[in-house]
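Hey team,

Filing this mostly as a record. A colleague (T.K.) asked me to run one chain through the structure pipeline before their review meeting, and I want the input and output archived in the tracker in case anyone asks later how it was produced. No errors, nothing strange. Just documentation.

Input sequence:
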Amino acid sequence: MTSRSQHFLICQVCHKSKPQRELLPGHLVREELLPLICEKAPDWSSSGYICYACLNQIRTNYIRHQMRKDLGELDDLEQEVVASLENKALLSENIDEEYDQTLSFGECVADKVAEFGGSWRFIISFSTLLVVWIILNTVSILLNPFDPYPYILLNLVLSLLAAFQALQAEMLSDMQKKG
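Output structure:
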């Protein structure tokens, strides 16, 4: 087992040596941020690198500057947004959890069925079932197949599955229109 050697490069802003995965090439930095970067690092070159910590700090300063320019003085909510950017904290809540608590039993079951019906596990298992069904009925054609060719029972099962999926899609569409 070989260990990967890490390339360390220098951030042009904080002048610290950091692994390459923690640095962004200078030519990928947005042009709007360049004046703020040049204030902190007058020797800035687009051929160099900037670490994500410095870049995030500069982005925060840019957003603060833009908000002040557009709105004048920042109110409490805007200050909270800027502070969350500086601290890398989340401001939003997970509204999916609140929504999930309002679902009825039937809606929860429908979500689980939809989740499984669109998964690779379902597609692979259902394809395997179809192949086994056809092989069993083709190999045992000489004996007494339970669904001889042209597989009428299999067609019925597939038609029912398609009808259920269409109904499910319609129900999900109605739920999305309501919610």
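Quick notes for T.K.: Residues 95-178 form one domain. Residues 4 and 19 are 12 Å apart (CA to CA).
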